[in-house]
Amino acid sequence: MKMWSGRFRQPLDPEFEAWQRSFPYDRRLLPFELVASRAHASALEHAGILSSEELSEILNGLAEIGRRAESSPEFLNDPEAEDVHHFVEKQLAALIGDTGYKLHTGRSRNEQIATDLRLFVRHSIDTLQTQIADWLDALLTRAESAGAAAMPAYTHLQPAEPVLVAHWLLAYVEMFLRDSSRLADCRKRANLCPLGSGAIAGATLTLNRAAMAAELGFDAPTANSIDATADRDFALEFVGALAQLALHLTRWAEEMILFATPAYGFVELPESYSTGSSAMPQKKNPDLLELVRAKSARILGCATTLQTLVKGLPLAYNKDLQESQQPLFDAVDTVIAMLPLVTGFMQAVEFNEKKMNHAAQSGFMNAWAAATYLVDRGVPSRLAHEAVGKAVQLALERGCDLEKLPLADLQEIHPSFDAAFHASLGLTEVLALHDVPGGTAPRYVKRALQNARERTAALRPCDPVALGS
Fold this sequence. Notes:
Shape: elongated
Radius of gyration: 30 Å
Number of helices: 18
Mean pLDDT: 95
Helix content: 55-70%
Structural class: mainly alpha
Strand order of the largest sheet: 1-2
Strand content: under 5%
Low-confidence stretches: none
């Protein structure tokens, strides 16, 4: 029996009926539908609609549906169920008889799906926060193990200045901590309960909305029944945050691909996350990294789909909103599958620290330090910049580094060069020169590592997260 069939005299066109069903994909919401239904049943009992015996029957029936779904995947192969809400009603009536039909008293599928999706988003965010913490732990462990190893940092893909390898990795840590923060903010805005909103105007019964919200771990009920049933902002915001996270993963992946090329030679790809060529026996290809780049397009597509879906959509619920589910699910599934893989890659990848250190000491990356040396001796910054630029040109003509230029030649460029100049250009001295919070000076990198460890630890929940909390 359809949940809406009383007014109709003609059956649905079979092809249309199959085409418009959402149960093949929204059945994954069953755990959330069950916990929300339990909360609604308790509210019906408090409102005097259900007796205590009927409430007990319904709660036991809902629990049995959950057990059967968990123990037998075939249980969910229902070709008649229109959606997850219809499925639960059908199964409940089959288990406990007509009392099962009382569960839908005073509620609408419009509020049910809005509630289920908020529960799904909240649960997914909690899962992702733990995965992000694992990923950050992998980055931080590699940063800590890098110690004093240095590498070139690049602007415009040209060598710019030397930095600690740890400092480079901490740049990614900051990106993903921001992603975690965005997800936490999204969770706060999503954590309001639509139950009691009815189809559009609010429930027709005096239900305790605050009690239902509290039972499900929401902060409060939603404030407006029209908005509650029409709102998918929480899904758009969530998938938007996932798209930002995926973009950050592509930046990391692209640098790792570049650094694994012979032109750089900083990274040795782990064989467990690489593949070869069917034609060229020597090849080891960065397949995981390339797929990370590619899958970001998929997640961006999901975000665009959701935005386009609600563009110009009138209030309140429209069947269009059914199409919000699959891009939401796809984006979540893609990121949840990806994060453990990049974490494993980061744990397995090898850095050629000797080559990185060598590269950090070539290409005139100590030029700004040289200019700073003159500034410390009272030379105006612009004039110091010009003098060191001339020194770089001279070194290029002679095929040597700045520190190999004779003092006499340097003093012809500017008299403020003195005998201490060459000693100021070593890698250790140049790194230590950036002695500001957020800089690559070792003492500040050490503090940054400790701070990042503390912020990462805070991402992990103290207790396992239940579906309804």
